[in-house]
Design brief:
Layout: H1 3-6, E1 13-18, E2 21-26, E3 33-34, H2 37-52, E4 58-62, E5 69-70, H3 90-109, E6 115-119, H4 128-131, E7 135-139, E8 143-144, H5 160-168, H6 170-179, E9 183-184, H7 185-190, E10 196-198, H8 200-215, H9 219-252
Parallel strand pairs: 2-4, 3-5, 4-6, 6-7, 7-10
Antiparallel strand pairs: 1-2, 8-9
Helix pairs in contact: 2-3, 3-9, 5-6
Length: about 260
């Protein structure tokens, strides 16, 4: 499929490409991305198309406006609670979360060119997506939180259980997932989630500067370096992502009187 065919195909993703550098800007109706079934489906399929197009030489992921992704999921309250997004049936969980959730992250990791994230503000839903990039830039206003899982009523099993303990260290990663901790940009940099912090107006220009720098290297050098550097992550996701999504679904069907 050509760039012209898939670049306008997804309502949650704007794409532009210049000299082999592809920018994917996530949004909802032109504003900051609001996670939904549609956004989940769009990103899973968009990453697949991008990874299949060998004309893409470097990829930039970013958000829209002053937020990267949201909204924050509020805690259910005291006691044992189920998520308001609990599946009605096993079939519904399988399609939306188990099947699509596995393919979303693996399609991202299967993009065989360098990926740069430009996190333009608070990232409180699916922060694992930009943080799986090879280079992670953050605006000064950026915050990182996993608001949708344990904090919001779900087992943190859709990749966050792999990424955060790996990058932050097991003790800090578990604390982050269990408490709904909010990390500001400097704290995220201090624990290794972010490489650079920039003023908002300099964020995307810096991402494009780095992309142009990476593109100077020969195509197979770029491609195979990305393949090598993501192999460990892909192995971990292959081994643990399906299990995490399965137990997340099992706990999500619990009902409390």
């Amino acid at each position: 499929m050509s760039f012209e065919e898939y670049s306008t195909k997804y309502g949650s993703v704007r794409m532009r490409r210049e000299n082999g550098i592809l920018e994917m800007q996530f949004h909802t109706l032109g504003g900051p991305l609001r996670w939904s079934k549609q956004a989940h489906e769009d990103l899973e399929r968009a990453f697949l198309d991008v990874g299949r197009d060998r004309e893409n030489e470097v990829v930039i992921l970013t958000g829209t406006g002053d937020e990267y992704s949201g909204p924050t999921v509020q805690p259910s309250g005291e006691g044992g609670h189920h998520s308001p997004r609990s599946p009605g049936t096993a079939e519904e969980w399988d399609k939306m979360w188990f099947w699509e959730g596995r393919h979303l992250l693996m399609n991202l990791l299967n993009i065989e060119v360098p990926v740069i994230a430009a996190i333009n503000g608070p990232c409180v839903r699916h922060a694992e997506i930009p943080l799986l990039s090879d280079i992670v830039l953050a605006a000064e206003s950026t915050t990182i939180q996993d608001s949708a899982h344990y904090h919001g009523g779900l087992v943190p099993g859709d990749g966050v259980h792999v990424l955060f303990p790996l990058v932050m260290g097991p003790t800090r990663g578990r604390y982050f997932l269990l408490t709904g901790q909010i990390l500001n940009a400097q704290e995220a940099k201090d624990v290794g989630l972010v490489n650079e912090i920039l003023p908002a107006e300099k964020l995307l220009p810096r991402a494009w500067e780095l992309a142009r720098q990476l593109r100077l290297r020969p195509p197979l050098l770029r491609r195979y370096t990305r393949v090598m550097l993501t192999q460990d992550l892909k192995t971990r996701m292959h081994d643990l992502l399906g299990y995490g999504l399965a137990v997340e679904g099992l706990a999500a069907v619990q009902r409390v009187d």
